[in-house]
Amino acid sequence: MPLSEHEQRMLEQIESALYAEDPKFASNVKRRRLGKTNGRRRLQAVAVFVLGLVLLIGGLIVDVHIGGFPIISLVGFLVMFGAGLLALWGGGSAERAAAKGGAASGGKAPRAAGPKRKFTERMEERFNRRFEQE
User: Fold this and answer.
1) Are 83 and 46 in contact (CB under 8 A)?
2) Segments making up each domain of the chain, as ranges
């Protein structure tokens, strides 16, 4: 369901306030959204998915059962599931290392707690004011 104009404006105001208050956090969140994968990662995910599909169908054709269950088909399904996760989450080890390095800086965590609380209080006040006006 699409957002109304009022909701869209509120969302844009919250987003701009987030960028103004903590640009490092905002860029980190924007970078880590689902679905943001590069072309190479998508191609790898498609190739792994096709391999899983071949295992799934091949397991039914070969008819290898362990405990009455087609184990090759199960492995194929798990490979396909992994390919889906790879396509969604993507992100290479360099991106993860950069994210960990940014979060692991020891002196910045106490400073970030104060402004976040202030930011949330301001957002809460704005939210309450808007509903009192309507």
Assistant:
1) yes
2) 38-90
Task: Please give the Cα distance from 33 to 20 (Å, whole number).
Answer: 20
Asked whether the whole model's pTM tops 0.90, one would answer no
DSSP state of 42: H
Q: For every one of its 134 residues, what pLDDT tens digit does the chain have, with 9 covering 90 and above?
A: 777 888 888 888 888 888 888 877 777 766 655 555 577 888 889 999 999 999 999 988 888 888 888 899 999 999 999 999 888 876 554 444 444 454 444 444 444 445 556 777 787 788 888 877 76
β-pair partners for 65: 70
